[in-house]
Amino acid sequence: MSPSPTTRTSVFVAAAAALSVLSAGCIVQDRPEHPEFFVVADAGADLALPVGATAHFEWDEHDAIESEGEHAPEVEVEYAWRSSESEDEISNTTAAALSRAGPGLALVSLEVEAGGARAADVAGVLFTPTDADTARRAFVAVVGGIRFWDGAGAPQPINDVEVEGFRAQWAEVDLQAAQGPSASVVLDFPEADVAIGAEVQGSVIVAVKRGAGPATIESTGPVTFTASNYYEVRIPESGGAPTLGQWERGSTNTVFQAFDGYAANHTAEGATRVLVAESQTLPGFEGPVAAAALGLLAIAASRRRS
Question: In the chain, what's the furthest Cα-to-Cα distance?
């Protein structure tokens, strides 16, 4: 028996109403739009502190989300601070602190997670002898994609430091044993990881102790290095600031300049940004509605054939 006109009409009205939910954009209205945004991690600047001091780091939640639009989305932000000095997480809040028992380099990494994406960054902390230490020596650290050249005359030992995949090295240089007016430390790149001519990001930190008193600190901050070049740190034995030289492979023409002079022409981005793509709807919500609409249309079609 065929359905009555009233039954057919009610079925199609229900199907049309269900489809209108989709076509009118009610799903987007029920689930607010999330514009594109960046998850940002910045562990902070490299530091040099005397042994016994504590390094403090902070990355505010408002800085961890960088919106492409006028308003930042309301998303949950999770933090994980880790250190090369500990196997355990040192903080899961916006701030962290680090100390070290003796001279040397420590790394602190920050991982920020939001919207299903993660961004990570690292900072180096070079701990120096206390003011009472009278030795004439320097501590040199490299963080990121650059390494010490380990050929003849390289400082020994070269100490490797790692945390969460971030790598660095540091070494102690005896200024009294320097052959000439300056001590020299040549820098290079890990051959297996860097192609000749590629640009890599890293930083150099130097702390110089010339007897009692505080160490003299120089740092490039995050800068770029070109893997077709060699780099050399020169540390004057009697006084003056360290300089950074560079020359192309196969060339003997070395240009030295102050750390801040090199940094001015080769500055790199300090923070890490990871884009979170636009999301209009909540996955799984629109599916049942569409299925219900199609189901009603199928019922209507079946009854029309009856």
Answer: 109
